[in-house]
From TrEMBL:
It comes from Actinocorallia aurantiaca. Keywords: Acetylation, Hydrolase. This is Glutaminase. Pfam families: Glutaminase. Homotetramer.
Length: 596
């Protein structure tokens, strides 16, 4: 039994975690004594998509206090409850270029510069809905819990430690109270702020909370609308300009994502409309940002092409159509036994017709969808003909998928000639039809259902004839051998039974004209003017694709047959008409499968 499928995205996270675990620069924050007790080796990574898929690595379930990472979420709650105009009266939105705990207010208004610095966050905590301290306290904790999709607790020891050492925050609060910006009781305001910072979360929680902002305020796990699209968008905007304090400008250039850091080692980053990222590692740099978290986020942004200023991928469903090899077949004309085998076993072939631009989120959806259903699959066709731009991250994820499938004995075929994608673990095909035919050939060969030679008595057109009539017909047939590329002269061959090898029907296209392969025919099938039931001129030509042996009913032999044995000639025509009707019914069923 196959081991569970591991997504290449999961592999990338695991690899990133393994490479950065030895990065030990920075120091654990100790100015809040309880934070200094954190294990410096903790390191968690998490990615949450907007449809609720989670990828995690390392210590992603270790609880820690959220600290300043809470600020954008509480700001979004304040915007939801009070509205932007009233919030702006008391908290600005301009970056400071200063540290998170700078003692600095707007000279003319006394407002904090933005809600991401401590002064602004203290005021923001008092702006959430509620007429009393207890109502606001409940609103903040329940709001953070709604963002996380689960009920969060508070670490009372950390909260008390912050209160005991929070002289600078206390000074800021009294300064703002004196300026008229902080209108609530100072000690109650500080208690609100200290408690929100002491809420216990995990790296996984951070990814989900950030995905909730990235998804317009809707939690991807619970489906609950936590805040409005407008509130979420404004919170992300302030994160982008102010979330990493005096590193905000360089951060936006490097990672290109709205982000927020915290002194416990947490870090979040959002790609709007696509995903949320969560990181946790207690060692901090001189600016108070997690060293491993920043490094991991910047690398993920680079590898996944997440930079906000990159051209956005065209949104919409990435799967244009999904087909199975037991209901949709290639244009190759196959003998009865092969058709029967494909109908019975063709479910092992899956065809995914993709559309739109392929970047991280769309490629993640492709990888996840295909990986969820691999138990009975042996061949996967990825048709990129309708796809738009294929970003480098998409190539990397498709290669990761193809390599993973290969480990499970599943072959990937990529249909692409124009985009020139690089997927070393896959077979590259020019057309979907050619890819499907290649997979069918492989399936028939592996099932022992591929026939290299089909004698006359077992030919499709003759299966329903009396064996006596088949023997009689053989006297009118001439053996012919065709070399690869040699043309079958249809005006000479009224009917050609393929015994071994194969023929292809080509039409001439372009200027200058060049041959285009419409379809092909294998052993057990027949071609010729008689099989077409008309005498009209045709623009196609029939050529051998490999050394081919046939039994040919020439036009002269057909005339002799109709003169000498009218019953045999009528039976032959009736058999041909019946075979064409059967083929039309089969084609109609396949077209129905394509439409539905």
């Amino acid at each position: 039994m196959n081991a569970p499928f591991v997504s290449p995205i999961q592999d990338l996270l695991d690899d990133l975690h393994a490479r950065l675990i030895d990065l030990r620069a920075g120091e654990v924050a100790t100015y809040i004594p309880e934070l200094g007790k954190a294990d410096p080796e903790w390191f968690g990574l998490a990615v949450a998509t907007l449809d609720g898929t989670l990828y995690e690595a390392g210590d992603s379930r270790v609880p820690f206090t959220i600290q300043s990472v809470s600020k954008p979420f509480v700001y979004a709650l304040a915007l939801q409850d009070l509205g932007l105009p009233d919030v702006l009266k008391q908290v600005g939105v301009e970056p400071t270029g200063d540290a998170f705990n700078a003692v600095r207010l707007e000279p003319s208004t006394g407002r904090p510069y933005n809600p991401m610095v401590n002064s602004g966050a203290i005021v923001t905590s008092t702006l959430v809905g509620g007429d009393t301290f207890e109502e606001r306290r409940t609103r903040i904790l329940s709001g953070l819990s709604a963002f996380a999709g689960r009920e969060l607790a508070v670490d009372r020891k950390v909260m008390e430690s912050e209160a005991a050492t929070g002289d600078r925050n206390r000074a800021l609060a009294y300064l703002m109270h004196g300026a008229g910006t902080l209108t609530c009781d100072v000690e109650e305001s500080l208690e609100l702020y200290f408690e929100q910072c002491a809420a216990l979360v995990t790296t996984r929680d951070l990814a989900v909370m950030t995905a909730t902002l990235a998804g317009g305020g809707v939690n991807p796990l619970t489906g609950e609308t936590v805040v409005s699209v407008e509130a979420a968008a404004k919170a992300l905007t302030v994160m982008a300009t102010c979330g990493t304090y005096d590193y905000a400008g360089e951060w936006l250039v490097r990672a290109g994502l709205p982000a927020k850091s915290g002194v416990s080692g947490g870090l979040i980053a959002a790609l709007p409309s696509q995903l949320g990222l969560g990181f946790f590692s207690p060692r901090l740099d001189s600016r108070g940002n997690s060293v491993r978290g920043v490094t991991a986020c910047e690398e993920l942004s680079e590898r996944f092409g997440l930079h906000l200023m990159r051209p956005a991928e065209r949104s919409g469903p990435v799967f244009h159509r999904t087909l199975r090899g037991d209901t949709a077949h290639s244009s190759r004309v196959r003998a009865h036994d092969e058709r029967t085998a494909l109908t019975r076993l063709g479910g092992a072939i899956r065809v995914y017709v993709l559309r739109g631009d392929l970047a991280f989120s769309s490629s993640e959806a492709i990888v996840r969808t295909i990986s969820e259903d691999t138990d009975s699959v042996r061949w996967v066709v990825l048709d990129l003909k309708r796809a738009g731009r294929v970003a480098p991250v998409a190539e990397a994820l498709l290669e990761g998928l193809a390599a993973k499938l290969k480990e499970r004995g599943i072959t990937t075929v990529v249909v692409d000639t124009e985009k020139g994608v690089t997927v070393p673990s896959a077979v590259i095909s020019e057309t979907r039809d050619a890819a499907l035919e290649w997979c069918e050939d492989a399936l028939l060969e592996s099932a022992g259902a591929s026939r290299m030679t089909v004698p006359l008595a077992e030919q499709d057109l003759l299966r329903s004839l009396d064996p006596f009539l088949v023997t009689a017909l053989e006297a009118y047939l001439e053996p012919r051998e065709y070399a690869p590329g040699e043309r079958l002269m249809e005006d000479v061959a009224a009917l050609c039974f393929i015994i071994s090898g194969g023929l292809a029907r080509q039409i001439m296209i372009g200027n200058p004209p060049r041959p285009f392969r419409e379809t092909s025919m294998g052993p057990g099938t027949a071609v010729g003017r008689l099989a077409l039931i008309d005498d009209a001129e045709h623009t196609h030509r029939i050529v051998a694709e490999c050394p081919t042996s046939c039994l040919v009913l020439t036009t002269q032999s057909l005339a002799r047959l109709e003169r000498d044995s009218p019953r045999l000639a009528d039976s032959l025509r009736w058999s041909i008409a019946n075979a064409i009707a059967t083929r039309l019914r089969r084609t109609d069923a396949e077209n129905h499968a394509l439409i539905h």
